[in-house]
Amino acid sequence: MRVLPLFFGLCWCALAGAATPPPAPTQASGAGAVFAAELQATANRLVGQALQGNTAYAIVESLATEVGPRLAGTAAEARAREWAVAKLQALGFSNVHIEPFEIPLWLRGVETAEVLSPYPQPLVITALGASPATAPEGVAGEVVAFASLAQLQRVPAGSLAGKIVFIDEMMTRTQDGSGYGVAVAKRLGAGVAAARAGASAALIRSVGTGRDRFPHTGLMLAADENAAPAVPAAALAAPDADQLRRLLGRGQPVSVKLVITPRSLPPAPSGNVIAEIPGSQAPAEIVLLGAHLDSWDLGTGAIDDGAGIGIVVGAAQLLLEHLPHKPRRTVRVVLFGAEEVGYGGARAYALEHAQELPRHVIAAESDFGTGDIWRFDTAVAPERIAAAEAIGELLRPLGIGPGSNSARGGSDLGYISKAGVPVVDLKQNGWDYFDLHHTANDTLDKIAPGDLDQNVAAYAAFIYLVADSEVSFR
């Protein structure tokens, strides 16, 4: 097994950044000039079948019910891999197997917070992933508030000795998730910046858009670039962040006590689960569909990313059931492990398959909940944009508009994208995704049968058109 260090980076949507405007129109030759009429007809039949119902919801229901939360490196994630192998084999996929690796293991412990003065009361928090622990009896101190991470980073080193910092920055709700890319900076950097300032601990307003009393967890930097360790850090539920803001506005010093007792342990097993629809050509070119199998430990991972697993597996299964012949290219489904704690599975896949990455024709990942796809972004060679636009044209009846050629492809595709694999983003409507993201409220009841059908239809048409044609995107 490879042992992979935790890469303390952003999760998927932190990569989104600000929305990129579509490029100037190019001279496209149209779908008919790129894909044969027979291919288009088959793609349309797959769309129709998906919209009449498919296995996506049943897959999510099975995972969320039979496995539940599946923190990377734990026995629960191992059960998820076993579940995935059994499910994919039962659905008829070929070459189903696990590719193991190891990651450092972080486990949550006790997590409580309370206002000590001037108005004693409890606060609802959750520890940030990779946070160190406080002493068992906790840490107490006067709260010093900042409007942003940048503001905290500007204070003199060591000037906040004995204090507890509070970064009170709200996240902007956006359709494409770009508000997350801004707000997540405080989650990543609060512990490190607070340590540099001499503080004892850090609190942040949760990186999320929900107003319920559910704090949002997520990965933080455990140390700065010089390996200086961060202080313990936790996220406040939005109503509790509001409460702390009001208390500070009363004009009296506010003291808070924080107790979090997570443990950082030696490397533990994780792994990627691979399944294929073998292609008819040799050597096989590969169309990759990804989603991540692990989740945070607070909810049951139904939205993040059980939904993505249901979408990509459900779309690929439509090809298994309804194609009269093998596609020319191999369709490979990759259920990545250890995404939430630093893209361990993404890195392991890129290392394990380095020699065959030149045969990866294109890749896509579903990791943004259950919202309908509204835009098709690509990242293909400039001379291949017309072919990508032809796929987009065939997706238009599903309510999917054209986008840019600046797709990022999803967090688990970052390593292979940098290695030259073209990627696409079938961008979902994420207006309410960050209400649930990384919270105990990420549960199956948020998904209704039929919610995923439009996604499955779009993915099925996309992967079929690429897999059963000879169109290149490199």
Which H/E pattern describes the elements? EHHHHEEEEEHEHEEHEEEHEHEEHEHEHH
The radius of gyration is 23 Å
The main β sheet shows up as:
8 strands, mixed
Task: Give the neighbour order of strands across the main sheet.
Answer: 4-3-10-6-7-8-9-5
- End-to-end Cα distance, whole Å, is 32 Å
Question: Could you please say which CATH topology of the largest domain applies here?
Answer: Aminopeptidase
Average pLDDT: 93
Quick one: CATH class of the largest domain?
A: Alpha Beta
Brief digest:
This protein has 13 helices and 17 strands. It is of the alpha/beta class.
Describe the 3D structure:
Helix content is 31%, strand content 22%. By secondary structure, it is α/β, with parallel strands linked by helices. It folds into 2 domains: 2-105 and 266-467, 3-Layer(aba) Sandwich (Aminopeptidase), CATH 3.40.630.10; 109-261, Glucose Oxidase, domain 1, CATH 3.50.30.30. An 8-stranded mixed beta sheet has the order 4-3-10-6-7-8-9-5. It has a 6-stranded mixed beta sheet with strand order 1-2-11-13-12-14, with helices on both faces. α3 (56-66) crosses α8 (302-322). It is elongated, with a radius of gyration of 23 Å. Mean pLDDT is 93; it is low at 1-29.
